[in-house]
Write a structure and sequence with these properties.
Elements lengths: L7 E12 L5 E9 L5 E7 L10 E3 L1 H13 L2 H9 L10
Antiparallel strand pairs: 1-2, 2-3, 3-4
Length: about 90
């Protein structure tokens, strides 16, 4: 197991996606990890930002490709359609 310490600096908060009863929140931030280039970062954070869950980091090109993909496929409508309960009739269980 790697015992090296991970360093990070939250440069800017882009937005909060969810807040949980535990005090943790799912956030979109611009973060520099291990003094590297800043990246868009999505993950859950503790209230003090001293603990975090696994997350995803994206560089500017990856963010643009993600946005383009979501918009071109209308992913929001797709998710909403999938989340609707199925129609039931006499033949479906």
């Amino acid at each position: 197991m790697n015992n090296e310490r991970i360093s990070y600096k939250v440069i800017a908060n882009v937005g909060t996606l969810a807040k949980y009863p535990t005090g943790w929140s799912k956030e979109v931030n611009i973060v520099s990890w291990n003094e590297g280039p800043a990246k868009l970062d999505i993950r859950d954070w503790s209230p003090e930002h001293d603990k975090m869950s696994r997350g995803i980091t994206l560089n500017a090109d990856e963010v643009q490709r993600l946005l383009d993909s979501v918009q071109s496929r209308d992913a929001i409508a797709m998710l909403r359609d999938i989340a609707r309960p199925p129609r039931t009739n006499g033949y479906e269980r």
